[in-house]
Amino acid sequence: MKLKQLALAACTALVAAGAQAEGLKVGMITTLSGGGAGLGIDVRDGFMLAIAQSGRTDIEVVIEDDQQKPDIAVQLADRMIQSEKVDVLTGIIWSNLAMAVVPSAVAQGKFYLSPNAGPSALAGERCHPLYFNVAWQNDTLHEAAGAYAASAGYKNAFILAPNYPAGTDALTGFKRLFTGNLAGEIYTKLGQTDYAGEIAQIRASGADSVYFFLPGGMGISFLKQYADSGVNLPVVGPAFSFDQGILQAVGDAALGVRNTAQWSKDLDNPVNAAFVESFQAQYGRLPSLYASQGFDTALLLISALESADVGDQDAFRKALEAADFASTRGDFAFGANHHPIQDIYVREVIKEGDIYTNKIVSLGLEDHGDVYAQNCKM
Amino acid sequence: MSLILLAEQTLNGLQFGVMLFLMAAGLTLIFGVMGLINLAHGSLYMVGAFAAAGMAAATGSFMLALIASLVAAAIAGVLIEMTVIRRLYDRDHLDQVLATFALILIFSEGTRWVFGSFPLFLDKPSFLSGTVTLPFNVEYSVYRLSLIVVGILVAIGLFWMIAKTRIGIRIRAGENDREMIGALGVDISRLYTMVFALGAALAGLAGALIGAIQSVQVGMGEPVLILAFVVIVIGGIGSIKGALIGAILVGLTDTLGRFLLPQAFALILEPSQATSVGSSLASMSIYILMAGILLFRPKGLLGGA
């Protein structure tokens, strides 16, 4: 299952001699097979699109499939650091894999740019000068959802998430800014596909709204079963269960649902418009949240490479910290713990022609960082 | 906790159980008759779901989609039986596990090649959507109710086939003494292919029926496969009746465990602690059930003496 891809050939000796910097080797470890492959493929495609558009021939990208397994991700990281001699690692989708790879990679002096996973441990006490998160801290979208549910006037929410660290983070994040009561709180089994039992409890709970964090296929199953259950309470969720990649599989069941995201296809800025158009032209599908995160990660990397050489670690770190690039999500800056400070939007699922997609309805949280930054000492 | 909620959860458990039965019946038949451990059974479930989603997208008809799932899974079953599985009957179980695990990988990546990495859409037919009010004011999904009915009908059909028809006699004979029925002039390899196709078709049907309320994606078969193995171990490997009892036990234990355990812990612990301890224990409940049953009946409830 080796998927090695030399995106852009190493430059010729002549060009290398003429260039001021020596170029850069990126190792991308992401999920390209199994049930979670859609996310990794989107991150990879967004990332490679930005590299191709930059026209730079001195960035070499080595891509490997982690199969969503922590042990394989660790092996790949070791190989990339020791034999491929990459300068920068990126690509990991899942928080449990990130926790297995990132601390040792940065301890070995490699930069790590996260295009997706943002576990709270790496944002707080275990933050690191060489670790940057270009997506979000895990809690962020859930906090925005809690704030939105409160502002929408919901007083009695039923909340559920899978029973694993990111699920606990999600419900913690939601509760942080939600001011109403909880009609019920359920942790489901990770990878669960049948939610009849949970939906029955929602029906009996007397809640006025439902909040759920069930990424990927879990969310598809939940929404289809919820729509068929005759429970008509309004649903709120983070963007992960309403993303471009899975909306077509959910169908009408998702229409009208409000969800929170740092990005949307219709976000009005020139970088995003060009990104959406070129992604569609290149790959024949609409970009997802994950694709935008991959794209922004590459833009950040390119911007740093333009002002510093990766061989000079301090200078390169400062160049990354500056985040001097125009992102697909508009204003973007890093907080003290190298996690984004950004706007979070409330989106609504709509149907455009035959395609289900999202449109922005309001700004949820402005210039939002995370609460773990205060524990970060670096 | 109201009785209505308890009744609804019991129906959910029953529905989960009969769908597990569709998977487990094929698995236990194949093991009983041919002595083969087929890890790729989950892949046949996936093939059924994808075939149904493809047919539904092309024609818009759910009935045609169900037929497509039966046919596609049966064909896939016949193909792998004739090319790969047939060579494994005389090997030991480790070889069978390795080869059928390889089939899982081939099916998963092959499906991704054909259909892509993103989940497909498959919806239940409109005449089965919505809810119905059952006696005692229990509101229940029409589709789930029809799943229970379909599952029970299939179970009755299987029992009838095995008890009353010629092929059923051969299957029972094959379970008891493979060499002897070969010596009596039954074409063993054709019987094996037929049993395998039947098991595959049942798995494919389950995939399509479940795909309509869950997500149709690569890798959807493996979690169900594990549960199906639990079911046949509890029921006694090779026994269809055992598979039915095991499936309903597992379905009820899992659903009611997830519902009742957190509530039970809430009596002695704080709410947030109770949910997390309760749901952790609930996800172990079927394995605890399996261990408990094996302790007293090492060959399963209806396993051969």
Notes on the protein architecture:
The complex is a heterodimer of chains A (378) and B (305). Chain A is α/β, with parallel strands linked by helices and 378 residues long. Chain A folds into 2 domains: 13-136 and 267-338, 3-Layer(aba) Sandwich (Rossmann fold); 140-261 and 344-375, Rossmann fold (3-Layer(aba) Sandwich), CATH 3.40.50. Helix content of chain A is 40%, strand content 21%. Chain A has helices spanning 13-18, 37-54, 70-82, 95-107, 120-123, 140-151, 165-177, 196-205, 217-227, 244-250, 270-283, 289-307, 313-322; strands at 24-30, 59-65, 88-90, 111-114, 131-133, 156-162, 181-188, 209-212, 235-238, 258-261, 333-334, 340-352, 355-368. In chain A, helix 6 packs parallel to helix 7. Chain B starts with a helix and ends in a 9-residue tail after the last helix. Chain B has a two-stranded antiparallel sheet. Chain B is mainly α. Chain B has one domain (3-296): ABC transporter involved in vitamin B12 uptake, BtuC (Orthogonal Bundle). Classes of the chains: A alpha/beta (378), B mainly alpha (305). Chain A binds chain B through residues 1, 33-35, 37-38, 41, 163, 168, 185-189, 191, 193-194, 196-198, 200-201, 203-204, 216-218, 220-221, 224-225, 228-230, 245-246, 248-251, and chain B through 2, 4-5, 8-9, 12, 15-16, 108-109, 112, 117-121, 123-124, 129-131, 139, 141, 143-144, 210, 212-220, 223, 255, 258-259, 262, 271-272, 275-276, 279-280, 282-283.
* Assembly of the depicted chains: heterodimer
Query: Termini separation of chain B (Å)?
Result: 42 Å
Rounded to the nearest angstrom, the radius of gyration of chain B is 20 Å
Task: Please estimate the helix content of chain B.
Answer: over 70%
H/E element string of chain B?
A: HHHHEEHHHHHHH
Under the CATH scheme, the architecture of the largest domain in chain A is 3-Layer(aba) Sandwich
Which overall shape of chain B is indicated by the principal axes computed on the Cα atoms?
A: globular
Give the % helix of chain A.
Answer: 25-40%
Q: Structural class, from helix and strand content of chain A? A: alpha/beta
Largest sheet of chain B: 2 strands, antiparallel
Query: Looking at this structure, what is the CATH superfamily of the largest domain in chain A?
Result: Response regulator
**Poorly predicted runs of chain A:** 1-21
| Structural domains of chain B: how many | 1
Q: What is the CATH first-level class name of the largest domain in chain A?
A: Alpha Beta
Quick one: how many beta strands of chain B?
2
Largest sheet of chain A: 8 strands, mixed
